Amino acid sequence: MQKFPAVILHRHKTGAVKRFHPWIFSGAVKKTEGSLQSGQIVEVFSEDGTYLATGHYGKGSVSVRVFSFEKVTDLTQLWRNKLHSAYALRKQIGLTDSEQTNTYRLLFGEGDGMPGLIIDWYNGTAVIQTHFAGMYNERQNFCEALQDLYGSTLKAVFDKSGETLSKVEALTEVKPAEYLFGKPETDIVKENGHFFKVNWQQGQKTGFFIDQRDHRNLLASYSKGKKILNTFCYSGGFSVYALKAGASLVHSVDSSAKAIDWTNENVTLNGPYENRHQSFAMDVFDFMKQAEEDYDIMVLDPPAFAKSQSARHNAIQAYTRLNHTALKKIRKGGLLFTFSCSQVVTPDMFNGAITSAAIESGRKVQVLHHLSQPADHPVSIYNPEGLYLKGMVLYVE
């Protein structure tokens, strides 16, 4: 059995790990064995020598990110078991064998018991993003585990960790984005029968916002004959669904010219849609202030306004301002799809921001749907912090 360095917790600081929470904060650590480096695998013990967990050591406020609450005897087999378990969940929810969808999140960090690791499946290409040194050090092992899992169905594995690794851990040997295996056969994916070109090399996150799949479908159910504004459109996911569902007009807005190019490309890929779509490369707030169109539906899906606790107050103000602007503009009887992907902004905080915006607007607003991340982005019941995507559909009189 492989022996790992030890981390000893204070007597009264073992409760969280005994409740299977995957984060062990630095204040809980009484002592460590030797001089540990970020990313090292360690075993965690109570003061009386009782084994508690195994995880990756880190230099930040979280000292250990736990990936096993049982003794690890074979790391290679553990990684394979984790990926097979994650795949079984996606199979259970109907994503792995769907004729209409061939892209999904295979593994979602703490939600699948692998803190700091994301793997997305794009029609034969697996894209890996690691957020901490420990998972980064194992990326070649994950590549081999993916080959074991998918066999010949897997055409390529692309590692895109360089842009997501924690700066706290200050790794010096981080490689640029690269293929760890194979070569992709296509960059076109299908989602609920809609086609999208995914640029995992240059795009945000792993290339596409898979977590909005169900909400794009919901928008489609309301879109026939409607005028729709899709803000922060990125690569046009909501726009494509609305157009295919029969929207009479769709305007797509993003400050990034590259995002607008991707949107136009994806609209064309699913079209033609005559003159029903127009895109604008400009600031969303500026666009909404000067917009003259009487929109039936608006989609507000901004990037994370807060990535840390210190930015949370300003983020809540930004959500309030954005939604107030939309509520003042949308036509009577319109629908507002509004979202937050800021993990540090809780659902209650987001709801509060939307309520403040509604009060300021002076309009009657009713909640039709409360929205969250889809089933391939599961939240561990022991780690509620894994809930990051919040949304509502509002009816505005």
State the main characteristics.
single chain; 397 residues; alpha/beta; Archaeosine Trna-guanine Transglycosylase, Chain: A, domain 4; Transcription Regulator spoIIAA; Rossmann fold; seven-stranded mixed sheet; six-stranded mixed sheet; 10 helices; 20 strands; globular
Stretches with pLDDT under 50, minimum 5 residues:
none
Given helix and strand content, the structural type is alpha/beta
Share of helix among residues?
A: 25-40%
Number of strands: 20
Q: Give a short account of the largest sheet.
A: 7 strands, mixed
Number of domains: 3
Strand content: 25-35%
User: What gross morphology would you assign?
Assistant: globular
- Overall pLDDT score: 95
Order of helices and strands: EHEEEEEHEEEHHEEEEHEHEHEHEHEHEE
User: How is the CATH topology of the largest domain named?
Assistant: Rossmann fold
Radius of gyration: 22 Å
In which order are the strands of the major sheet placed? 16-15-14-17-18-20-19
End-to-end separation: 66 Å
Q: Which architecture of the largest domain would the CATH scheme give at its second level?
A: 3-Layer(aba) Sandwich
Regarding CATH, which class of the largest domain? Alpha Beta
**Which superfamily, in CATH terms, is the homologous superfamily of the largest domain?**
Vaccinia Virus protein VP39
